[in-house]
Amino acid sequence: MEDIIQRIQKLKKERDAVLLAHYYVNDSVQQIADYVGDSYYLSKKAAEAPQKTILFCGVKFMAESAKILNPEKTVIMADTTADCPMAHMVDEERIKQVRAQYDDVAVVCYINSTSEIKALCDVCVTSSNAEKIIRALPQKYIFFVPDQNLGRYIAKLFPEKTFIFNDGFCYVHTSITKENVERALAIHPQAKVIVHPECTMDVAEIADYVGSTSGIINYATKSDAETFIVGTEIGVLYQLKKANPNKTFYFVGNKQMCTNMKKITLEKIEQALLTMANPIEMDEDLRLAAENSLKRMHEIAK
Ligand code: SF4
Fold first, then answer.
1. What are 100-144's pLDDT values in tens digits?
2. Domains and CATH numbers, the chain
3. Please, which residues bridge with residue 230 across strands?
4. pTM
5. DSSP of 156-171, one letter per residue?
6. Given the CA of residue 147, which atom of ligand 1 is nearest to it?
7. Residue 126 in contact with ligand 1 by CB distance below 6 A
């Protein structure tokens, strides 16, 4: 293990590469990353990084977002097949239909979306900034894509707006059921329930805290509680335990694992840095169109 870490560090220097990792990747990858965070944090780091190569340890839409914001940099992935199924759960035709149907509509896309979808939207959001960004939009109608659960959760905060939902979902977060959480609470009644807004509304409604992965870590770290029932992907346990070694975290099902995030391994990171194969490439018109929605997000969220 030691050897491969040393080889990766050496290759990183040779390639002038920064290694960005999502909270959901394997612990061994989080341990060697330069920055670990949620989608919003990583997209900021990608834009700020002085290195000329970005090695993304996460899924494809994240690496594409890094390329959109940094066209002059080389962006590679540890595994180019790591993709988020939810990012594909809305089609361009549906967006065109909604735009034709409503005059006063903003199409808001969760950052978990393809570049083609970002190019058709007015602004991007992440789970950590969606409320702030939608508050800044003047439109009465909000078409939220692709995740219906984050959309429904945010819509509750804006009774004055009319939301139109799409039917996308994350299979990891929707595998967390209200019944499972209640069963865990019956065993650990003192536990705080902390969940991600990609969970279904009935789960969010019984939670003590609903927020982004960073928000979940912050809440658990600041809380006086010692036991937590966690409703998000299990990779977050690494940072939760690192920040809170004396607290206990329970995960309620056996499906809280994103198979695509778990494709990223140290061996693949080493290979990617060795070969620099399959850098993210994008048509310039597509990149510019997608950049608008990402840049708007960063401007409003500042
Ligand atoms: S956890 Fe869900 S939303 Fe995140 S990458 Fe995996 S499938 Fe996509």
1. 999 999 999 999 999 999 999 999 999 999 999 999 999 999 999
2. 2-83+261-281 (3.40.50.10800), 86-169+289-301 (3.40.50.10800), 173-251 (3.40.50.10800)
3. 194, 251
4. 0.95
5. TT-TTSEEEE--B--T
6. 3
7. no
